[in-house]
Each structure stands twice: as structure tokens, then as C-alpha cells.
Amino acid sequence: MTHSSPSTPCSGTLFFDVNETLLDMSGLNQAVAQRLGNRPERAEAWFTSVLHHSLVGTVTGSFHNFGDIAEAVLEMTAARYGITLPEEATPLAEIIAAMPAHPDVARGLTALQQQGYTLVALTNSSAALAEKQLSSAGLAPLFTRILSVEQVQVYKPDLRVYQWAMKEMGQSASACMMVAAHGWDVGGAKCAGMKTAFVARRGQALYPLAPSPDRVVDDIVALAAEITPLC
Fold it and tell me: Which is one Pfam family of this protein (predicted)?
């Protein structure tokens, strides 16, 4: 990771979601689908349920590691469909740690860094897992900080996550933008006062009842081409 002082003049601070926004989850989805009877729609339901139960933990005050939630929900989903999971399967955390970056990401992040933006990862993954993910994908050197929700024990899109992240970086909301491929993530950040950019990855859509993002882009390269300084 690069390191810079929050007081250093810059174009603004960009907070990036990691899973799906920066990293390609197709390999993970295929592995989960295979374990659930080779049914891709069950893998999609699994990930939706992972997000659901992370929020259940947030509202009930019972925080669990994201990787542990992923495994628990896989077990629950398998039971729902009467499937016995293989005993010696690769742990999901190992698959998640090795997910590759989308083809546009390294070029887009490099362009944003060259424009003077401070790049920060803000993820629901644990700090250790996020470090492995971004290092494996070759992206870690582009980020000033990697921030995990485990440090505040609540999951995005709880407003406390975004408020803590801005405070951690010493920046006001007006100088910050959340970049994510999830409507709930940009919606939460917008409610916390951040500017937002929605990355329209395949299969992703905005939630109509959430505040509209400031930008909608196809990928990170497009964001780098369109963005204007935040501060």
C-alpha cells in the first residue's frame, strides 16, 4: 500500500468496495453453484442471503466474520435443498482470497491515482482477507489504506461504517466518494453524506427507492475518464 498524509493536497478520497466492484466473483459463484447441485441461481441466492445475514448480525449486535457468514449460509442453503456438502471442499475464504480483478480495474485505479485521488478500499471482508484479496489481484500497491468493517463491528450499508471511514481518513464528506457495484452500498454512502459512483457491473442494478448516485459508470476506466476533483 502507498502512504500519504490526509492533509496532502489531492483531488479527493475515493472509497472502493472490493467484492464484485473490483474483483470478479464469477469463479466463486461457479464453485458455490457446483456445491449446490450445479444450479447458478442457487449461488445467486446464496450471496444475497450472505448479505442479508450480515445485516441481521448488524441490527442484532451479533457481529460475525464475513467468511464465517459465507460458510454458514452455504450450509443453510444446502440444507434447504437437501444437499450434502462435500467434506473436503476448498474453504470459501481461500476462493474469495484468490478472486481476480476485473480487466478494467488496474488501469482505472492507476489513472485515478495519477490524477491525485487517494484510493481507499472499504470492504465487508475481514482486514486479513482483504489484504490477501488485493495482494493476490495485484492491486494492493494502489491503495493508501485498506479499511474493514470488522474494525467497527457493523456491516455496510450501516451509516456508521462510512462515517468511521471518513473520520479515519481525516476527510469531510464533501471530499469523499464511495465507488461500488451494489445499489445498497452507494445508497448507504449517499445517506452518510458522501458523493457516490455506481459501477454497473453485469447483473447489478440500482435500488429505485435509494438516493440516486452522483455518477453511473460502466467500469473503473470510465470513472477515471469522467470524474472531476472533489476538493
Answer: Hydrolase
